[in-house]
Amino acid sequence: MNTIYSHLHHRHHGNAELIDGKLLPCFEMPRRAEMVLARVREVGLGDVAAPDAFGLDPIRRVHDDGFVDFLATAWAEWTAEGRTHDALPLVWPVRSLRGDRVPEYIDGKLGYYSLDAGVPITAGTWEAITTSADVALTGARVIADGAASAFALCRPPGHHAASAAMGGYCYLNNAAIAAQYLRDHGCARVAILDVDYHHGNGTQEIFYQRRDVLFLSLHADPRVEYPYFLGYADELGAGPGFGFTRNYPLPHGTTWDEYGPALADACDQVRAFRPETLVVSLGVDTYEHDPISKFRLRADDFPRIGAHIAALDLPTLFVMEGGYAVEDIGVNAVSVLTGFEQGR
Questions:
Q1: Which of 63, 160, 198, 308 is the catalytic position?
Q2: Structure pTM?
Q3: Which distant-in-sequence residues (6+ apart) come within 8 Å of 112 by Cβ?
Q4: Which option is the CATH number for 2-63+125-343: 3.90.180.10, 3.40.640.10, 3.40.800.20, 3.40.50.300?
Q5: CA distance readout (Å), 320 to 133, 159, 227, 234, 301
Q6: How many CA atoms lie within 13 A of 317 on its CB side?
Q7: Are 158 and 321 in contact (CB under 8 A)?
Q8: Do the bridges between strand 213-220 and strand 245-250 make them parallel or antiparallel, or are there none, so unpaired?
């Protein structure tokens, strides 16, 4: 399995995020990707290649033009106010406030286009997030060209980014961009399976009214876990997309005894959909020692995830998402990939 990776992810390195009522050092850090890359090389997973540049057109296929333009100019607008520290939002358009007008001032724009205060924008954020999208697109092209599998080692991650909003460490939705690329290059049906601890709210929103992309997510119950406002079992899609979204909210403390049957059911749903390609949003923050998660999967459970996915016998693109137990992220992520390879 070839891995796509770019060192330019280092260009994004936020100083702090708002969590538990405090500004704390970001859990999403460059070392996450470094540890995964090191493990890829240690086990000899396959060649590691740099991404090609695809421009903004594939990004605009799933993201709102105004949102993309905001991300491209946010740092310049922020620093034009004399600020040199990270840009973070301070106000959001909640239900009682108007949400149909884009403010002209950068502080208003930051709130308008964000879900939370976990998305600091730095001098290198734009370069890092567009390169991360290129990593996913390069992986998608590898699959479209006939490869059985590929690993897009994306950073920053993407599955919380909606069509016009960033959040949860995510700015551009790499998995959604890749899935749309596959649709645009000959795949009539694409399935996205999200195994991150947190619900892939952004991916769901992007494809919620479509029947050509099936979205399935196993995640912590949003009644008690981020992102709180999406990921419930009764969210099934809308309009022509009704029946093409499936959520598996699971309780805190979930072990393989609960996770395995949910994953098996999700895989059955993929089979019934009969996609031509599968995109996996690969988060390993389901790990029992992850610092911001509350599932209890053990290290030896991750190859089982890969084996379940391999049994689908589909061309598969893995797109890196979450996982914040930094010392273990490489072992756990690559264990999914080696479990997949051994199961084919």
A1: 160
A2: 0.97
A3: 92, 93, 99, 102, 103
A4: 3.40.800.20
A5: 11, 10, 18, 27, 18
A6: 33
A7: yes
A8: parallel
CA atoms within 13 Å, Cβ hemisphere of 122: 20
Q: Is 160 a catalytic residue?
A: yes
- Cα–Cα distances (Å) from 324 to 27, 211, 297, 329, in that order, read 6, 33, 14, 7
Asked whether the CA dihedral 233, 239, 241, 244 is positive or negative, the reply is positive
Residue 287 DSSP SS3 = strand
How many CA atoms within 13 Å lie on the side-chain side of 229?
A: 10
Q: Residue 329 has which token pair?
A: 């992220």
Which two structure tokens, joined as six digits, stand for 193?
Answer: 């399976």
Pairing of strands 213-220, 190-194: parallel
Residue range 192-229, pLDDT digits in tens = 999 999 999 999 999 999 999 999 999 999 999 999 99
Q: For residues 335, 219, 317 and 116, what is the CA-based torsion angle, rounded to 10 degrees?
A: -110
Looking at residue 86, the DSSP 8-state letter turns out to be P
pLDDT at residue 274 in the model: 98
Rounded Cα distance between 272 and 225, Å, is 30
Crossing angle (nearest 10°) for helices 302-310 and 326-343: 30
End-to-end CA, the chain: 12
Give the list of residues 6+ apart from residue 250 with CB closer than 8 angstroms, or none. 218, 219, 220, 221, 258, 259, 262, 295
